[in-house]
Amino acid sequence: MLLQQIHPNPAFDPCFRFDIDGRARFSHEGYLVDVQVRRPTAEDMPYCASAGHKSFDVVITGTVVLEQVVLCKVSANAVERDPYSMRGALEEVLCDVVEGARRKVAALAARAMEIDVAHKEGQT
User: Fold this and answer.
1) Each residue's pLDDT tens digit in the chain (124 positions)?
2) Cα 79 to Cα 39: distance, rounded to the nearest angstrom
3) CA–CA separation, 54 vs 80, rounded Å?
4) CA 72, CA 105: separation in Å to the nearest integer?
5) pTM (2 decimals)?
6) Count of domains in the chain?
7) What is the 3-state secondary structure (H, E, C) of the chain?
């Protein structure tokens, strides 16, 4: 998968890079995805590696926002010192969050149509 990073400094790194706050922005299949990397919290522990919490575990979260509405938020676990783990988790997050955003938009559009039809039938 070709990563199209928008922030920070995409021209300086052939793979990907996060800013000092663990944030980055990517363009994936036309969607802007805000990504954050953070240490796991107590709530994350059941979903982290079965070997238990390690000091290099991180949670990568991707979010798609359109028109100031959060359409989808997806997280994956990775090991920050393993570039293959980080890359795999990032790719998984990008693919899953865009797919989730598409499903949410389709569901919202279908629901809006149902409401419109019900409203029109109620007026006649």
Assistant:
1) 777 777 766 555 556 888 899 999 999 999 999 999 999 887 876 556 545 556 789 999 999 999 999 999 999 999 988 888 999 999 999 999 999 999 999 999 999 999 999 998 877 5
2) 10
3) 10
4) 10
5) 0.82
6) 1
7) CCCEEEECCHHHCCCCCCCCCCEEEEEECCEEEEEEEECCCHHHHHHCCCCCCCCCEEEEEEEEEECCEEEEEEEEEEECCCHHHHHHHHHHHHHHHHHHHHHHHHHHHHHHHHHHHHHHHHHC
Residues 6+ positions from 111 with CB-CB distance below 8 Å: none
Tell me the residue range of the domain where 47 lies: 4-123
How far the first Cα of the chain sits from its last, in Å, is 53
- The C-alpha atoms of residue 15 and residue 82 are separated, in whole angstroms, by 14
